Amino acid sequence: MDGVTAFAPATVSNVACGFDVLGFALHAPGDEVTARLAPAGVRIDEITGDQGRLPRDAAKNTAGVAAQALLTILGEKRGVVLTIRKGLPLSSGLGGSAASAVAAVVAVDALFNAHASLETLMANAGIHSRLERPPAICFLDITGYTRLTQEHGDEAAADLAATLARLVQRGSVRHGGKPIKWLGDGVMFYFRDPGPGVRAALEMVGDLAGAGLPPAHVGLHSGPVLFQQGDYFGQTVNVSARIADYARPGEVLVSQAVADASHEGGIMFQDIGPVELKGVSALTHLLRADLA
């Protein structure tokens, strides 16, 4: 194809109390970037709508930098020529710099038919930072939390949540993890290494049962994640949550990636096989973790 044009809309944040608590994307206005094949490198041939204020040097322009970063990740020897049409006023607070960068990486990805993941595109656009070492993301959910709240009231639910917080905070930190989100009836954790994450999950399930709490079910997956403002995003997070949903009460289920990266002694994995998880297009190979 001769060229690909991508449109990235304006974004608005700070529409609730606090810093960037709530934001949304608009249908218009936005920036357009057209990418065309070139022998090598990244070049910007034209920018319109900026009153001549933006740099034409690709190395100093957010769209050019993002496009070059994606070409490097793809290992692509060919280059691109970018044409940028600014539909967003400069310094308007509508995300103009990010819009140009996003449109550029989407156009370049389509031009080379690369089908890069959303995480790759966002990281190269500079919106999120990518962690170089694939960690493990863990979701722990309490079985029957909603029923307990309905039958015993909010005070009982609050006591359960307080006990849960105390036990999982101690159990995760002991193995190099940290709670990221408290979800009422569960917790999302980050573990730098999958092996200790599996051990922590098994111990936390046991600790909760020992404290008289309803049984927990846990899912872990390892892979690339995106980090922004203290939270983690991406397909790895989504798959981890779906694995936890699939697990039965008292079970710790892990993906093949977690099992392969776990080198902890005293842990065994029983193969379950490929399963279909809600919201995940491909089959996911699962194993059940237990203490040996």
Descriptive overview:
This protein is an alpha+beta fold and 292 residues long. It has 2 domains: 3-127, 2-Layer Sandwich (Ribosomal Protein S5, domain 2), CATH 3.30.230; 136-291, Alpha-Beta Plaits. It is 34% helix and 32% strand. The chain has 8 helices and 14 strands. The chain has helices at 62-74, 96-111, 118-124, 145-152, 154-173, 194-210, 235-246, 256-261; strands at residues 3-12, 24-38, 42-48, 79-85, 129-130, 136-142, 177-182, 186-191, 216-222, 226-228, 231-233, 252-255, 267-275, 284-291. Strands 7-8-6-9-12-14-13 form a 7-stranded mixed β-sheet. A hairpin with an 8-residue loop joins strand 13 (267-275) and strand 14 (284-291). The protein starts with a strand and ends with a strand. The relative contact order is 0.11. Residues 16-21 have low confidence and may be disordered.
Key features?
Alpha-Beta Plaits, 34% helix, seven-stranded mixed β-sheet, four-stranded mixed β-sheet, elongated, 292 residues, Ribosomal Protein S5, domain 2, alpha+beta, 14 strands
Ends apart, CA distance between termini: 57 Å
Query: How much helix, percentage-wise, in residues?
Result: 25-40%
Order of helices and strands: EEEHEHHEEHHEEHEEEHEHEE
Choose one word for the global shape: elongated
CATH superfamily of the largest domain: Nucleotide cyclase, GGDEF domain
CATH topology of the largest domain: Alpha-Beta Plaits
**What is the total tally of β strands?**
14
Strand content bin: 25-35%
Compute the average pLDDT: 84
**Number of H- or I-type helical stretches:** 8
